[in-house]
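Today's session is about reading a structure prediction critically. Students often jump straight to the picture, but the first step is always the sequence itself: look for stretches that repeat, for charged clusters, for runs of hydrophobic residues. Only then move on to the predicted structure, which in these notes is written as discrete structure tokens rather than atom positions. Here is the chain we will use throughout the hour.
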Amino acid sequence: MISSVSGITSLNHGIPIKNASSNACSQQKTFHGLLPKTFGLKPANILTQLNSNDKKKYAYLVDYLKDFPVSYNSSNTPAKKQLDILLKNGRLLSKSKNDRSTTLDNLYDIATKEREYGLDSKRLLGDTLDILSNPRIITQTFGDIPDIEKQKILSELPDNENVKNNPSLMDVTASGTCAAASNEVNLADKYPAEFARWVSKLSAKNDPLYLNINLSSISKNKLDAVTILNLLDAKTESFSFDKVRIKINADKNVGIRAGIQNKYWDPGERNVADVLVQSAIMQLGSQNTYDTLTDIRGGNFNSNLQGLIEIEKTFVESLIKDKEITSLVYQKFDDSQNLIGYTCSFDKMEKHIKDTIDSGDDVIIGYVLTNETSGRTASQYYNPQTDGAPNKVINGHEITIVDYKTDENGKTTFICIDTDDDSNGFVEYTADWLLPKLHHAGYPAHIVEADEKEILKNCS
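Below is the predicted structure for this chain, in token form.
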């Protein structure tokens, strides 16, 4: 269910948290263990046997990439080994809910069909394999544009483009795509065939990307679902009694950014697949107002020129998962955007996250830093529920919780993927540190149904 647009729910969770405070980064460390138990597919859905047609596609890809250099992002794993691992863990033959195509089908399409924007099919295929093999590498870091390319871009842009009068807008050093990147993580992690389909369609010539969505995934009330689709300006092309077909577009300048990364990618930057998928998610969430060239969006709800707000992120998440997602807002603010309390206990927040992880899903969360919990004014003892001192929001960020662990004392640590931490690994946040900063989180509706009314009541 998408919550109402009021108060702090209009805060854009898009500005990089790492630049706001070194204290945030000091609370995290790389997780070096095995992949979390929920990272990937459920055992019941695993298929590992190639049929005759699959064998031909598999062999073609192996031969196609035999001379392709090992990517920095692949941990020195050749493409053939990546394909073999994806086959053995069931991700290669996983099927898209939208058209029943497999991951293998869509990888084959990337290799054999003409790409748009002059993209190199081998590079795009390698990028997609890297992400499917390790979604932890997904990043929101844009990377630089060489001066020679800037001049070319400016010469080809229409005269009415703002960037023509202010070329520095192209220098995106602090991107606002954390919500989009977190949704990309979830797409690649839990829906590998669908992720590969997105990359294939978004980079294809004359082969658009469509989602076939159950109206009940947007709202139990079908009239409300249609209202939400109109409110978020989704590109609907057909309705049936219980389904809607939505066209997904990347923004008009995605070819520029994708082309730059195709030619000039550096370690730590978004690869071409990241550019395509994050652009499409930003477009979908921002009422089709996003510009990848500048990382600036417009739309009906933009309180900030960057990022997506909670209702936009939840809308995209519901469409990607094709299930009703309830976004719970846990923090309360005064008119000056000071944190003054919470809508439920930390224990209940922790239970919501754990129950969702145990069900086999990831949890995309938005958290905030305030002037009392970060930087030079940080205080580990601060609690706005008891002392009532000003605790003004200074920043927000989205990350994905993919697992958790509990120590011998019953203390919980959440295992996360943060697309803005300059790391290809997992990060750990203790529940004691993260939960007081948790602004909102999206859950399958049935998991939090019992607490939803109480939390919504406490928001007011």
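Discussion point for the tutorial: The CA atoms of residues 108 and 356 lie 33 Å apart.
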